Amino acid sequence: MEKFITTNLNGEELQTLIIEAVKKANQENNYNQNPDLVSNDYLSQREAAKFLRISLPTIIRWKNAKRVPYYQEGRKVLFKKSELLQVLQKNQILLK
User: 27-36 long-range CB contacts below 8 Å, 24 or more apart?
Assistant: First the structure.
């Protein structure tokens, strides 16, 4: 069962909170120091959303808008962990 949290944060506060969470996750998993750790790891749409701590509709919207790189074979859509992290680090606008 999914949990929903309501908050009184404004858009900028929420963006800052998300950016800090992504940075913390990167540091904890040493992605910044050793990107080879995740270079060959592929994620489904659901796994990518969970990995980035965003909703499934958000990752699908980013994919459809070509904001994040993805690979597709038939109906199967995959994202590379290292590429997702690179996109977020270079394009903080995605977190708005």
Answer: 31/82, 31/85, 35/82, 35/85, 35/86
Residue 86 inside a domain? The answer is yes
Amino acid at 10: N
Residue with tokens 């708005």: 96
- Return the CATH number at 23: 1.10.1660
Chain position carrying tokens 């790189």: 69
Q: Is the pLDDT of residue 54 over 80?
A: yes
Tell me how far apart the alpha carbons of residues 2 and 19 are, in angstroms, rounded to a whole number: 22
d(CA 3, CA 28) in angstroms, rounded, equals 24
